[in-house]
Amino acid sequence: MKRIFSVISLSVVFAEIFLLSNCNNQKGGAAVSAENSGSFKVAIVKTDTLAEVYEYYNDLQTSLMLEQQDKEADLNARYKALQTKFLKIQRDLQNRMITQSSAQNKQEKLAIEQQKLQQDQQIYQTEMMEKSQKLTLQILDSIKSYLKEYNKEKHYDLILTSDTLGSNILLATGTTDITPDVIKGLNKRYRSFTGKKEKE
């Protein structure tokens, strides 16, 4: 059976660009626009690095993968049991232990079981995709929430995302890589929520 859930991609989570303007965080005369000041601060977050070490992301990913493995193991076991029953009917019929009519009745019952199993598999696939999408939104919300707090002090006008394979950024001269800061802050906040200790 094909795996219907692939590891959540932070490249997808970061599909959008985070526009974080100082003007939205300040009021009246205290606000200084990038145009007036002549400066425009841009930062980059490397999503492939973030995916490796963001503990919240990894915990969600592990939890979903374990759930997937358990469910697929159950479905595979049911498929094998169904196949075993079918083969037994064939053997019993060949050995004349049951009649043709009896074999047909048994096969019809197995066909109903197979249909139910296929329905359960479709339901499972839909549920896993929905959970994957939900967790993706959770991760995105967590990162955006942190970046808003982070940017109150850093005052970047634009925070872009970059990864090794899917990046649209070919040259990043004059930009600041804030990935280490973001990772440190995200993990610190996550540990404070969960009570987890920092990994050594």
Characteristics:
disordered N terminus, 4 strands, single chain, alpha/beta, 200 residues
Structure description:
The chain has 200 residues and is of the alpha/beta class. It has one domain (10-194). Helices cover 63% and strands 7% of the residues. It contains six helices and four strands. The protein has helices at 10-13, 34-37, 47-53, 55-94, 100-154, 179-194, and strands spanning 18-19, 42-46, 158-162, 176-177. Strands 1-3-2-4 form a four-stranded mixed beta sheet. α3 runs parallel beside α6. The longest helix is centred in the middle third of the chain and has 55 residues, at 100-154. The radius of gyration is 27 Å and the shape is rod-shaped. The two termini are 38 Å apart. Residues 1-8 and 15-37 have low confidence and may be disordered.
| Strand and helix order | HEHEHHHEEH
Shape by Cα distribution: rod-shaped
Low-pLDDT stretches: 1-8, 15-37
Approximately what portion of the residues adopt beta-strand conformation? 5-15%
Q: Characterize the main sheet.
A: 4 strands, mixed
Determine the fraction of residues in helical runs and give it as a percent range.
Answer: 55-70%
Find the count of extended strands (DSSP E, 2+ residues): 4
Summarize model confidence as the mean pLDDT: 80
